[in-house]
Amino acid sequence: MIFDETSEYILNGADLMLKGILNKKQIKNNEFNFGIGEFFYVQTISGKIIGIGTTLVTKLTMNIDNPSGKFLKIIHKIGDGLWNAGNKKDLPPVEMN
Fold this sequence. Notes:
By secondary structure, the chain is α+β, with helices and mostly antiparallel strands. The chain is built from 3 helices and 4 strands, in the order H-E-H-E-E-E-H. The protein has a 4-stranded antiparallel beta sheet with strand order 1-4-3-2. The radius of gyration is 13 Å and the shape is globular. The two termini are about 15 Å apart.
């Protein structure tokens, strides 16, 4: 999950930096492990999904105490070619448990 303001960077072509993630502890403390190349979606704090990307770090190497570097390589986002080829509707919000 990211701040709504951070979405501007993603929508303008930036990858997601670890520092821009709001729920770093939740990701780190979750039961599932992830490696490099795993798929994650990017959701704003208001619940809007704006893109998907693949992880550039593993759960074990993710440093939440001193966050720096890229977390996700964004592969698709609202407004890109794939989005424009579809119906351009917003994706439904995903509820976090």
